[in-house]
Amino acid sequence: MKCSVVILNWNGSNTLQQFLPSVLQHTQRQDVEIVVADNGSTDDSLDYLHTQPVRVIALADNYGFAGGYNRAIEQINAEYTVLLNSDVEVTPKWLDHMLDYMDAHAEVIAAQPKVLSWHSKQQFDRGETAAIRFEHAGAAGGMMDILGYPYCKGRLMTHIEKDYGQYDEPTPIFWATGACLLIRTEAYRKMGGLDANFFAHQEEIDLCWRLQNQYPMSVYSLPFSTVYHVGGATLGYENPKKTFLNFRNNLLMLRKNLPLKRLWWVLVVRFFMDYMAALQMLVTKQLPNAKMVVKARYAYHKMKNQYPKSNADISPLLAKRSIVWDFYIMRKRK
Questions:
Q1: 125 pLDDT band (50/70/90 cuts)?
Q2: What is the rounded end-to-end Cα distance, in angstroms, of the chain?
Q3: Which pairs count as long-range contacts for 129-133, CB under 8 Å and 24+ apart, including other chains?
Q4: Rg of the chain on CA atoms, in Å
């Protein structure tokens, strides 16, 4: 196979029935297979999947985003693999454009399309907005600030831009979204895949950072391909478990990838920043989320010794400024 498009599912029968048809419609190539890896679903997902022209990998349990994909990709025999969320609507030639670019540019190891908001598209189709917004998880390509906070071309903190074609050139990015990540399968395996300890959230950023450490400037945004992502289909954006995973995994990722000469002072600053975030959650009556920030920091300290400190160079794509300062103090929104 040239490419395997792997969709991970957990109790998402309704989501599959809504979005899988677009993948089947717009991915009709003899050298591309569509695979759905089921993470031990207890709904009727498997019954539905067995009626569809897809390859089904039934996993025995819910191994999370990271563990589920790792187990599925062990069974993949293709030059390229796409990690595609089940709540993504694809468009004509979405995959062809990216494969053509990767074939022509051997230095590109992983890539993402332009990720627009499915909800915004619904409003646009009804004539309610002038332009479609990017989607939070990926937008036009992931970046990283000096303190380890991820942001995107098209999404800064909570502010999401409308797409006017301002990011339509193929460019190197720091990380590609796990909602639609195209990667050379051999490189995925060489990197050890996603970190299963993360379970879910920011594991694709960690994978891309490890790629950047070994193959600088190897991750690209390819915005001539477009997909529409719902976002928050498994865990809502305000879900306390999501808060826990994001804070814990972000700290683990810094431990794994930042060189010691920068790691120590970044972690000192992040100690204060994280507790300020928890305080802000308390003030805004988000007590469960505030508790999860504290719990995440304790979990990080219990797990950190599993990971040796990095001796990698600092990526040239790592921003030299803080998006927290830019967003809250300088009032930047783009």
A1: confident
A2: 40
A3: 129/162, 130/162, 131/162, 131/163, 131/164, 132/162, 132/163, 133/160, 133/161, 133/162, 133/163
A4: 19
Closest CA to 133 of 148, 153, 118, 146: 118
User: What type of residue is 207?
Assistant: L
pLDDT (average), residues 180-191: 98
- The model carries a pTM of 0.95
The span from the CA of 275 to the CA of 9, in Å, is 34
CB 223 within 8 A of CB 168: yes
Residue 162 in 3-state DSSP? Answer: strand
Establish how many alpha carbons lie within 13 A of residue 56's alpha carbon, considering only the half-sphere containing its beta carbon. Answer: 19
In the chain, the domains with their CATH numbers are 3-229 (3.90.550.10), 240-329 (no CATH)
Q: Which amino acid makes up residue 285?
A: K
Ramachandran category for residue 64: left, alpha or beta (phi over 0 → left; psi -120 to 50 → alpha): left
Tokens of 164: 């006017």
Residues facing 111 on adjacent strands: 182, 220
E strand segments, the chain? 3-9, 32-39, 55-59, 80-84, 88-90, 110-117, 142-144, 150-152, 155-156, 159-160, 171-172, 180-184, 219-229
Alpha-carbon gap, residue 303 to 197, rounded angstroms: 9
Take residue 40 and report the two structure tokens written for it: 């031990």
Q: What is the dihedral of CA 303, 305, 308, 313, to 10 degrees?
A: 60
Q: Is 79 helix (H, G, I), strand (E, B) or coil?
A: coil
